[in-house]
Amino acid sequence: MAVECACVLDPTTLVATPTPTLGPCLPLAGIVADALLARGWPIKRVRRVLQTVGMLGPAACMVAAASPLTEGDPAAASAWITFGLGLNALTLAGVSVSHLDIAPKHAGVVFAAGNTSATVAGLLAVPLTGVVLQATGSWPLVFGITAAHYVVGAALFALWVGDKPLPQDG
Hints:
170 residues, mainly alpha, 7 helices, 74% helix
């Protein structure tokens, strides 16, 4: 299915924009977390809130990118995806550092296990996306599945996040 670009931007620019946008957003996650902790927020609440915003925000942006709001406007869809990726930077103050909370002695190993799992999931997601697109031709479906994944992940993290070292870390 071919998509015509009626915008003045080169389609390559639209694809390349989200990743460099993430860079300046990354330090903000730590700044926000530090500010909340300085105000007396418990670690668990900081992790929970930033992870939830960092996942539900991109989910909403994915839905917006595939909605009638952006129909026929790749630049608008790219802007939504870029904004969502910026919000996703908040997860650095959530899941990305929670290993230090629950396994301070073995945080590297716990992080590596989680990162490996995420990498495998990412490797599977690309061909599965191709299968869904080939079968349906629907980007809104692909973005909807991605948004649902964000929502389920946010809910599970909020439910299971810990802030105390596990006994097994002893």
